[in-house]
Request: fold
Amino acid sequence: MELIDQLEQKIDSLLASNEALRQENTQLLDALQHDMETYQAETARLTQELERERAARLAVAARIDGLLRKLEAGAGDAADHAQP
Reply:
């Protein structure tokens, strides 16, 4: 009878451990889901920021190119007027 009691205690202990592990697993999955959502939101934010930076850089480069063409045209006109 004592062996049956020991077996019953061991089974109860294992079932309790199993339940504790299930709860811990659920908590870890919830935390992982939250972290993934945070990561995805941050990735989206950074992607948008990067696209804005690229667009701004392209706009500045286009303005610089325009100014260089303007300078080149002005230099060409000045050279034309300087010749006798």
In short: The first helix runs from residue 2 to 82. DSSP finds one helix and no strands in the chain. Residues 12 and 38 are 39 Å apart (CA to CA).
